[in-house]
Write a structure and sequence with these properties.
Helices cover 21% and strands 24% of the residues. It has three helices and nine strands, in the order αααβββββββββ. The protein has helices spanning 2-19, 43-49, 52-60; strands at 78-82, 88-91, 95-96, 104-105, 113-118, 125-130, 136-141, 151-154, 159-163. Strands 3-4-8-7-6-5 form a six-stranded antiparallel β-sheet. It has a three-stranded antiparallel β-sheet with strand order 2-1-9, with no helix packed on it. It is globular and about 40 Å long.
Length: 164
Amino acid sequence: MTSIKRRFFLGAGMAASAALPGVAVAMNPEPENGGAFEVTRTTAEWRERLSDIEFEVMRENGTEPAFSSPLHDKKTTGTYHCRGCDLALYSSKHKFDSGTGWPSFYKALPGSVATRPDRSWFITRTEVHCRRCGSHMGHIFDDGPEPTGKRHCINGVSLEFRPA
């Protein structure tokens, strides 16, 4: 029961962040190697290639509204790729219904994502982004299923699905 209440609270907070743009601080991740991401684009190039909501989420660390992604209920076998650079990030084998309104996975594909602390909402969360282009995917929480106990709560607009 506590887990459900916490998920509801976090989900409500994320929905509020989507409704209140500008409240959360925009953060651009740095590559773990300290250099540049493998895939880089100018702001104009990102804006040209992404819709407004995709840009807000992927480049400005926004959040799509809960239950708005068609990927949330997708149960097809396949792989979820980064919309920004086409890197394979998540397998459908690791997807589960978290009840939060966003596509959720208990682990990412090896070497596909990177993380960093996100202190934008009065708590410290773990932000997850594409390790190749730095696009914001979502956050990782410690209330997922076994075997990892993790919940990668991912914005569907950050992903493209490829059936197997």
